[in-house]
Design goal:
Distance between the termini: 32 Å
């Protein structure tokens, strides 16, 4: 498994935490890094799918403003919204 993150999260400490969790970090190096770290560019290109999914979820005001009082009801609505998105319906 991989941890996909933006360039802003590029740090040796975070990479160490990710490694202790048994994952590989896919984080592009910052421009000012002395010793650039390699990352899988093809895998990193896939992050737009995840970003687009969150954008579609946040189109619904209930998700963006978190109207639900409890974490369980909020998660239930998130799961419903994901099912609707998976079915291709706009809500």
């Amino acid at each position: 498994t991989h941890a996909l993150m933006d360039r802003a999260y590029d740090s040796d400490a975070l990479r160490a935490v990710i490694a202790t969790q048994g994952m590989k970090a896919c984080i592009p190096p910052r421009k000012n890094r002395n010793a650039p770290v390699t990352h899988d560019q093809e895998l990193y290109k896939q992050t737009h799918r995840l970003e687009n999914s969150f954008e579609k979820l946040k189109r619904h005001r209930r998700v963006a403003t978190r109207y639900d009082k409890t974490a369980a009801s909020f998660m239930a609505f998130i799961l419903d919204a994901c099912c609707l998105l998976n079915l291709g319906r706009q809500f």
